[in-house]
Amino acid sequence: MAFPPPRASARFFAPGVLLLASLALFGEGLLPGRAFFFRDVLHYYWPMQATHWRLGVVPQWNPFHQGGLPFLADIHSGVLYPPNLLFALLSFPTAYALLLVLHHFVGQLGLYTFLRGKGFERPAALTGALAFGLSGYVAGLCNTGPLMLGLAWMPWVLVTLQSGLVPLRRLALLAVLIALQLLSGDPQSALYSAIASAAHVAWFAERRPQLVALSGAGALGLLLAGVQVFPTLWLLTESTRGTDAPTYLGSWNLPPPRLLEFAFPYPFGEYLGQPQFWAWGMIRGPSSVPFALSVYLGITVLVLAVLGVRRERFSGFALTLCAVGVLLALGQKSPLSFLLASPPLSFFRYPEKYVVLVALGCAGLAASGARAVLAGVSRRQLAGLGVAALLLVGLLGFTWALPSTAVTWATGLMGLATRDSSHHPVIAGLAARAMGTSLCFMLGMLALAALASRHPTHRALPAALLLVVAGDLLWTARVTVFVGPTSLYREPEIIGRLREEVGSPPTRLFRQDKPLKANAPPSRTLEELIDLRHYELATLKSNLAGVFGLEEVTSYSAVELWRYRAFMDVLAARPELVGRLYGACLWMTSSAPQPNPEGLVSVIQGPDRLDVKRLSGCPPRLRTATRTTAVPDQSEALRALSTGSVDGLQNVSVEGGTSRTYEPAQVDAVELGPRNARARVVAGAGGTLLVFATTSYPGWSATVDGDEAPVLTVNGAHMGIEVPEGTHQVDFEFTDPGLSSGIQASLAAALVLAALLVLSRRSTETAGETTPAGP
Description:
It holds the Pfam family YfhO. It comes from Cystobacter ferrugineus. The chain crosses the membrane at residues 12-31, 85-106, 126-154, 166-183, 212-236, 289-309, 316-334, 354-374, 386-410, 430-451, 463-484. Keywords: Membrane, Transmembrane, Transmembrane helix. This is YfhO family protein. The strands form six sheets. This protein has a five-stranded antiparallel β-sheet, with no helix packed on it. Strands 5-6-8-7 form a four-stranded mixed β-sheet. The protein is α+β, with helices and mostly antiparallel strands and 775 residues long. It has 30 helices and 20 strands. Mean pLDDT is 91; it is low at 1-5 and 770-775. The chain folds into three domains: 72-481, no CATH class; 497-615, no CATH class; 622-734, no CATH class.
């Protein structure tokens, strides 16, 4: 019997549901006057995009942060990711929210398509897609936008891997998807895809064709993104990411007690509001708030996952993802911790991120469980669910009746230290609330399963199942989505006055974080957090100076040059010297009484006790020295600065140079560009050494009257060149050392990709010609 094709409305039902879920989660950010702002959104991603378009379409050097560092090479910038063009067309808050919604939708749709390809019916595949897209970890990625952008393409890698495309066409499409992940700003998403694909290859047939496609696509994808990857490889060797031991493996591991949060929403409390999160002691990271604000998988999802486990390949695939995800997320406490210390895993920070693999595996099992529920589960399975619910009721009752005893036992088992016993009722209340919420949704799923076992053909069952799962996850996910007013993205009043003080050629800013932070308002509620962000905007925290075209020395970046980091660490106790050597003449600090370096004169009094001071006698960015001291390496150069054997101004250390004395010289007609500098130097007999106070990095070249001059490393972090006697035109210019080879690699890969598509088309046509016609 032939079935009629599905109506158009049925075809669009699943995408419509998934888009609605994305809008329900992140749609508030698209409303007029509303904006995402939490974590790095305001302090890192906004400055990154603002400086990107201020510097041009493909900026190579970023002069606004840390005294200068590569821009394109910082793979987190996403300079070449096509959808990021939205930032050039729309305001940052709107573009950011739109990218979140669209990529979240694309990721959900990809998993839905993958599950449909595995033979799951529409309701079951939709359940799995929602279980993944609305999980606590994925919902929390709204605060780290590029991670959502890269993650969106992971399910599509699996879709392509299992597809029936011609082998060459499949390889080409996989390569494009991998390249998109590498360009998105979150290259770790390509690693997630590799792990998920490896699990797929291990569990499903046609392993050899899949391995060939993956290996070929991996190499071709890397080359396609070569214009981004090759500069990044250079940056790795010059940054703390490539030179330090992976000490960050101890940061933001998934603490074993948080495994409870897979099933119970916020058992330790929320991070904003009252009562607050209480188990701060188990968090190890750059802040006391964990990287993953939520790792809630959903009690309904876990129930479905238990029902969905079968003696079949798909269950093995999904369980493998769950197991690998948990073991990697545990970090130092995992038996797989040795893998995290080895490339390529060692390139990425914060093991907690691998929870995304657990969410993906549970989503697959949830789809299998949804199919089982809609087909009618057995009485034995219903009885098992009922026993689990009764146990949860008993545990909830015990917690309510004997809160102190329950807290003592629970914290003892988890190895958590608690405050005095007077806080036990609060802790017990948080645990009871988490268990009560899970119990309600668990009972809802139990009732639905019981109804399905009696009336498996009831037309309302699929919709009810989707509502229960979505309701469970959205109820918790809403707490990880922080939206505030767009006033957080306005130019502060003080900017105009700062621009006047900066002058031309520009001087840099030096922000004294500690006194400014001491005046910051509290942030225990969402309203207080918004007030804090307004204060941080007014005081240009982190990278915000770069948004308005002002250069800063003490800014934050996900990638730091090792020369800059070592310089700042050694001279941490001498900020005045740091400011002078980097040409940071303006200091942003607090007007509250505090010990200040000598030579600071107040020039601007702003709101919130903000005080801007000028460093008297601050040397310019381009200056000459009268004496050089030869040192073998950076450590000796920094030791000389810290002990005072060189002052870094008139007497400078030169790595691999010679010790010399020069007559005073004149520097004028100074011009500073985004990736170049120019000056006229008038040197006396014997010449002079011209110091360029920008962080040293390969790719900087210098010429004297058009003739190339060797660039020397000065004071352990900066650059300098020797200028002969007389009047000369000196130029510095930066060209990313990996850019040329990266462009060549990308062009070559693009040609290979085009050839693959042509060959695949010809093979398809040939196969069609040789196929005998039907009767």
